[in-house]
What we know:
Radius of gyration of chain B: 14 Å
Number of strands of chain B: 11
Largest interface: A-B, 31 and 29 residues
Distance between the termini of chain A: 33 Å
Structural class of chain A: mainly beta
Number of helices of chain B: 0
Shape of chain A: globular
Helix content of chain B: under 10%
Radius of gyration of chain A: 14 Å
Strand content of chain A: over 45%
Oligomer: heterodimer
Largest sheet of chain B: 6 strands, mixed
Shape of chain B: globular
Helix content of chain A: under 10%
Largest sheet of chain A: 6 strands, mixed
Number of helices of chain A: 0
Number of strands of chain A: 10
Order of helices and strands of chain B: EEEEEEEEEEE
Amino acid sequence: GAGVSQSPSNKVTEKGKDVELRCDPISGHTALYWYRQSLGQGLEFLIYFQGNSAPDKSGLPSDRFSAERTGGSVSTLTIQRTQQEDSAVYLCASSPRGAGGRVETQYFGPGTRLLVL
Amino acid sequence: GEDVEQSLFLSVREGDSSVINCTYTDSSSTYLYWYKQEPGAGLQLLTYIFSNMDMKQDQRLTVLLNKKDKHLSLRIADTQTGDSAIYFCAEIRGYGGATNKLIFGTGTLLAVQP
């Protein structure tokens, strides 16, 4: 498809386990964002990738969270030693460019619903 | 998302106009967005407005921007049951810098009664 895709759609895990969430951005989009949507915090920014630049990790809530973007395309968000408060919908977005004096619209994927028991 | 405020709920009758309000905090925000989220779905971009504009109209949608009061509104004309969803306003942060991150409001649940 032409949009942002994410997998899995839903993930149920046990407290303490590690999880990996995947995002496939729109082809040709160089900027990629991860956001989290939870009941207590609403929609919040997590991390941003732009081309080969160092990612902006300022939104990651703890060092249990990390993300990679391989080959400037697919991104994986990893949560280690999951906690119940990590339960949320994790949204990925991409845009043609993220910065450099021009604002590009961000297009969102359907999200991964994570439930930590 | 607490920096951008919205009322939590709005209920209207089918055919009426809906007005969803948003108050943002960063006066330097250059773009302001409205996104729609239907149950179980991701965020769909509805419209956006550049900060040098007061109004933008797009079919049934009208966006009004009051920069002095940092107030943004979305008007939906002839509201339909298919418009029932959560509506998020968002402002851009980091424009021209390293990151263009979106700061979202709390979301307004629009319920359209038939």
